[in-house]
């Protein structure tokens, strides 16, 4: 009995020992199997960090490249701007009469006219009209002598000499006529009375008359040049020009460039209610810096082409344009209304105002 118990005890202990060894070996092998891909698992983050480092370095390099590209582009655009300007500057330095009409001291073109304050808090038409009419009927500078009245009375019946120029020695036109270097631009639609133009042509001025109703593009007649062209406040669409093969309306800046003229001693314009938008364009683009005297017929019976707003706003806009003209050193020296025209002011009888006034300004700072 004792030997049997001893044998069973040893067998039991041996079984427990083998079981323990088996469990330990199993656990060891299981851990070793799980630990085997561990280096791969650890290598992947290392590679990711390397890739991230490479990506970050790549991003830094690309950012630096983009910044260099931007700076290069800026330099290129600046150089291109200089290249565009340099020929004009070289022409200004090397040629006595440059082809560009641009004044080197001209202000940067603007996009809109600054409106003057209202004439009164009521914003009434009567108050706006009173201020406007008082402004256009009060000469700001005196001028003697005036040229044009006698020529008009001699050359055409029924004319009253509304178109006049100032030949006062304190302004440049008189000296330009003496030196035979004056240039005249005259814009109109089917104008019959060209007595002032003929007078200035006989005085030795280079006279250009623009009329889109002419049959020929350019024609020399007596002492004057006639052109089938008119001034506008915008250039025509390129598609329209390609279709018609000839544009009969252009901005004054474009016409000056096309003709190779920098200065105009006298600019005369009768634009049949387009004068307000044309004057606005001339002011915004600074073209009037190249003009010595401005003769303009104003039509007041309606607002004018593409001028919107109620009646008081329209008159305020008119007044603001003329004040802008004054700020560009133009001063009114002559005004005359047309007695043959009806007394209509925006389709109304306001202060017995005429529907048409011819105004003459001189650029007091103009020195060609």
Verbal overview:
- This is Methyltransferase like 24.
- InterPro entries: Methyltranfer_dom, METTL24.
- The chain crosses the membrane at residues 6-29.
- Keywords: Membrane, Transmembrane, Transmembrane helix.
- Residues 124-334 form the Methyltransferase domain.
- There is one protein chain.
- This protein is α/β, with parallel strands linked by helices.
- It has a domain at 125-149 and 162-363: 3-Layer(aba) Sandwich (Rossmann fold).
- The protein is 45% helix and 15% strand.
- It has 10 helices and 12 strands.
- The chain has helices at 2-35, 38-94, 125-136, 149-155, 172-178, 195-202, 238-244, 252-259, 275-284, 311-327; strands at residues 146-147, 165-166, 183-187, 206-210, 218-221, 224-227, 230-231, 249-250, 264-269, 291-299, 330-337, 356-363.
- It is elongated and about 155 Å long.
- The termini are far apart.
**Which structural class do you get from the secondary structure elements?**
alpha/beta
What distance separates the N and C termini? 144 Å
In one word, what is the shape? elongated
**Total number of helices:** 10
Strand order of the largest sheet: 5-6-4-3-9-10-12-11
Strand content: 15-25%
Number of strands: 12
Main pleated-sheet profile = 8 strands, mixed
Overall pLDDT = 80
SSE map:
Elements: H1 2-35, H2 38-94, H3 125-136, E1 146-147, H4 149-155, E2 165-166, H5 172-178, E3 183-187, H6 195-202, E4 206-210, E5 218-221, E6 224-227, E7 230-231, H7 238-244, E8 249-250, H8 252-259, E9 264-269, H9 275-284, E10 291-299, H10 311-327, E11 330-337, E12 356-363
Parallel strand pairs: 3-4, 3-9, 4-6, 7-8, 9-10
Antiparallel strand pairs: 1-2, 5-6, 10-12, 11-12
Helix pairs in contact: 3-10, 9-10
